[in-house]
Write a structure and sequence with these properties.
The chain is mainly α. It is about 50% helix and about 0% strand. It contains three helices and no strands.
Length: about 80
């Protein structure tokens, strides 16, 4: 499957961040630069997931505040009919 997705090889246009996001494993033929990019991208994605989980937990536990309902929007009066 990976060979079909990356026919030019992994060092030719390989997107390490997309691979880290989708969980695609790093192939054994990846070069050292690609391995470094992948490690960095994997760490970034892990940190992002952690922060998003914290944000989701905070928003999910938030108590709704008692606020008055917003005032209804004004309704525009219809235009007068043209005089013949």
């Amino acid at each position: 499957m990976a060979a079909e997705q990356h026919p030019g090889g992994y060092d030719d246009g390989y997107d390490a961040l997309m691979a880290a996001i989708t969980g695609e494993p790093l192939p054994p033929d990846a070069g050292p630069d690609t391995r470094g990019e992948y490690r960095s991208a994997t760490a970034d994605v892990a940190l992002l997931r952690e922060q998003l989980n914290l944000l989701g937990d905070a928003l999910g536990d938030a108590e709704p505040q008692d606020r008055p309902a917003p005032a209804p929007a004004p309704v525009a009066a219809p235009a007068p009919a043209p005089v013949p």
